[in-house]
Hints:
Structural class: mainly beta
Oligomer: single chain
Largest sheet: 5 strands, mixed
Number of helices: 1
Number of strands: 8
Order of helices and strands: HEEEEEEEE
Radius of gyration: 24 Å
Distance between the termini: 84 Å
Amino acid sequence: MKKIFILLLTLFIVSSCSVEESERFYYVTLPVESVDMPAEFIMGETYQIRISYHKPNSCYGFYGFVYEKNLNVRTIAVQTVVFEDNRNCTSYNENETFEEILNFKPTNNGTYIFKFWHGKDSNGNDIFLEYEIPVI
Length: 136
């Protein structure tokens, strides 16, 4: 009888505890609107590249950069996290931009080619803002 009481008490305690549902979210890549790039790099120095983009509303939070390297070519996009519980989201003016900093340190001689994802064209092809920056 004692074992049954302990089992029932344990079941009651476990069933009365509620585990909150974790927040639901997903990731969205947003187009880069503009970039503030230096005219040239000096090998070994670190540069802050200022990247501007639009967020549709306050449920979008900056998560990081999608950053791909292929020799001296860098392909970059803005990665955001979007929380599905959007009851408290406020819309932004479509002219309002947000800025993030990408730190870059050239490690090779030659020219770096930066391709910032700017969205898609009417045919669904990717569009990039491209910069060729020499290392001196």
